[in-house]
């Protein structure tokens, strides 16, 4: 029986770059999740009887929201729900399941790399039929609906058994509890040379994968250990926990410190990798060598043809603006277009749908391709493994040979977190006003070539996104980028991106900190971060 529950609008339900993210306490309030989900159902484009995918990263509150979403979907005319067993679906796997099963969309319950638990974060994101995050027009409509909503609908039904695969009926709707790994693993087997990787593993290739007690555990166990034959124990922290073991499931050198130490130590395996809460980010570390996400994108693009799924070549390479230009040099060598988009995976969607780009990546540890419409942590790991197996080379050799061929983009990101919002804005405004006067001037030993406030015109739909970050480009390929984070939760986070290009005959074996030191001074001279915020050093360097 369908029941209509009276409700009133709740403020602040505007989805951000990756859906609605709030503390669990906020989501657990009466009607909070229900209002948002009903707003999604009220505006989502779908035919009667359409299928909906539901799954999450396993964090605290995941199951509660899934059960309620199922009762609501049944009351809102869906014909079928596909739910991941145990409430689990990684973000890229959910994207694939939506596409493969022709669903009209999906609810992905995650707050990505943010901590989980009763006092931590939760999130709901709606993805549309192409498997990608709802475009702004849709999220705007959802938000508008949250401001007028007066009822939500649910059938009266008890909880579904999420732990046993199979189909149950909830009202007139079928709920299929599916193996969260099966479809995704099958897709990976199509894209990559699993036989070749298995042979390399049998021949001694070793790796360590840190699942950070988050969603990729079951995927990594199945794919890396069961299918590819890596030794048991290769996957660390492989059981998803509701609080991620109390850690930040963020695969960077700070939060994946243990893995980094292993990889820099005497007993390091050949390859190290990690993924985040919902499985879309990746960290790549070779024996004794960290590969920046920007370099990883470039190196994967340069070698992608070695994997069966990309043997026909790439149509184009896209990167977000703050990501280093290393990938552009690969695109140039391959004779394919390079695209520079604003920060945020959603900007790649149109390029992928239009067949203009095949591989995309961001400095924020996201890499992926047109196989789904999300970034994909394990996909990047498997492409690396495919390249290592096909070449028989180490990560270090691949990196060094890459730099010898294309030159090297030394790169670092400095984050100033929890900065007073007004001070952060003053930094941005100050530099923004000085931009026009900068070209041709000298800062230390550097000469400014181009200075601009980045704006993007989408080549597919012509839409324009302005104010996407400040760029000061110096002669010979060095660059500073300054932008405010769009995902921070407390105060403002200033991100300063530093990049220095060394050509093939330059210093390719330098220490990153040393190579970037004159850019750090130039940044202070130009942006006055210390002077305006009182911060003399970044909180995080990645
Ligand atoms: C999310 C998006 C990424 C984006 C990142 C930027 O993770 O999924 O596509 O790169 O946010 O975060 P920022 O904090 O720099 O705005
Ligand atoms: Zn994520």
UniProtKB/TrEMBL annotation:
Question: Could you tell me the superkingdom of the organism this chain comes from?
Answer: Bacteria
Instruction: Give the Enzyme Commission number.
Output: 5.4.2.2
Q: Which reaction is this enzyme known to catalyze?
A: alpha-D-glucose 1-phosphate = alpha-D-glucose 6-phosphate
Biological processes annotated in GO: carbohydrate metabolic process
Q: Which cofactor does it need?
A: Mg(2+)
Entry keyword set: Isomerase, Magnesium, Metal-binding, Phosphoprotein
Any one annotated GO CC term: cytosol
Tell whether Phosphoprotein is among the UniProt keywords.
yes
Protein's name according to its UniProt entry: phosphoglucomutase (alpha-D-glucose-1,6-bisphosphate-dependent)
Recorded source organism is: Aurantiacibacter luteus
* Lineage per the UniProt record: Bacteria, Pseudomonadati, Pseudomonadota, Alphaproteobacteria, Sphingomonadales
